[in-house]
Design goal:
This protein has helices at residues 3-9, 26-31, 37-45, 86-94, 166-169; strands spanning 61-69, 79-82, 97-100, 104-113, 118-129, 132-144, 153-156, 160-161, 173-180, 186-197. With 200 residues, the protein is an alpha+beta fold. Strand 9 and strand 10 (186-197) form a beta hairpin. The protein is elongated and about 65 Å long. Belongs to the Rho GDI family.
Length: 200
């Protein structure tokens, strides 16, 4: 399939009639409804305070890890993609991950908001086998400001079940994942591959 098809597959769904508001600086957000005490506390928890942070440079969001969680994983085994480590990420692209068929699992993503407020951040993932789309996941992550302590955010997705059967176990699945916001700004684009097997 063409790159154009991939672009369309990874496009976020839209809500009819919804229009994102114009982006504002942290200082502008801090001054909005400044007299509302509960809102001021909530904004402070997101690191939003008047004069607190200038517009930064570099990416607004850094995706740190993507992790596959399952109670069926053998003790001591983990499946974590270190997306901010180029060498680790390159190895992920070359070596398909082995996933046990018919198990319940969920995905966890960790990311850091570096500066600015980001709204409507979502994770989109398209799975193909032999060039044919077999699954698409779109998960809303939410809206965030920079953590006051510079800590990362973690989001666990709902549980899913991996396919099973002889046909499901044949071939390699190609996955393209994207983290994007309401404005269509892409914060991360990455690919990985997996195979289904009878055991981990």
């Amino acid at each position: 399939m063409s790159g154009h098809d991939d672009h369309e597959d990874l496009k976020p769904s839209s809500t009819p009639g919804y229009k994102p508001t114009a982006a504002k600086s942290l200082d502008e957000y801090a001054k909005l409804d400044a007299e509302d005490e509960s809102l001021a506390r909530w904004k402070a928890s997101l690191g939003i305070s008047a004069g607190g942070s200038a517009a930064g440079s570099g990416p607004k969001v850094t995706v740190l890890t993507l992790e596959l969680l399952s109670k069926t994983l053998p003790a001591g085994k983990s499946i974590v993609f270190q997306l901010n480590n180029p060498a680790s990420y390159e190895a992920t692209k070359k070596n398909p991950v082995i996933i046990k068929e018919g198990i319940e699992y969920n995905v966890r993503i960790t990311f850091r908001v570096n500066h600015s407020v980001v709204s409507g951040v979502r994770f989109i993932q398209v799975v193909k086998r032999a060039g044919i789309k077999v699954d698409k996941l779109e998960q809303m992550l939410g809206s965030y400001g920079p953590s006051p302590e510079g800590q990362h955010y973690t989001k666990d997705f709902e549980s899913e079940e991996s396919p099973s059967g002889m046909i499901a176990r044949s071939g390699t699945y190609d996955v393209k994942s994207r983290v994007v916001d309401d404005d269509g700004e892409v914060f991360a684009d990455f690919e990985w591959h997996f195979k289904l097997a009878k055991e981990w």
